[in-house]
Amino acid sequence: MSNQVSKAKPVRVALLGCGVVGSSVARVLLQDAADLAARAGAPLELAGIAVRRPGVDRSASGIDESLFTTDAEALVAGADIVIEVIGGIEPARTLILKAFEHGASVVTANKALLAEDGPTLYQAAERAGADLYYEAAVAGAIPLLRPLRESLAGDSVNRVLGIVNGTTNYVLDQMDMHGAGFAEAVEKAQQLGYAEADPTADVEGFDAAAKAAILASLAFHSRVSLSGVYREGITEITTADMRAAREMGAVVKLLAICERTRTDAGQGISVRVHPAMVPQSHPLAGVRGAFNAVFVEARGAGELMFYGPGAGGDPTASAVLGDVVAQARNRLAGGHGPAESAYADLPVLPPGRATTRYYISLDVTDRPGVLAAVAGVFAGHDVSIEQVRQQSLARSAGEGPDRGAELVIVTHAASESALSDTVTALSELDVVLGVNSVMRVIGD
Question: CA within 20 to 30 Å of 130's CA: 103, 154, 398, 421, which one?
Answer without folding.
Answer: 154
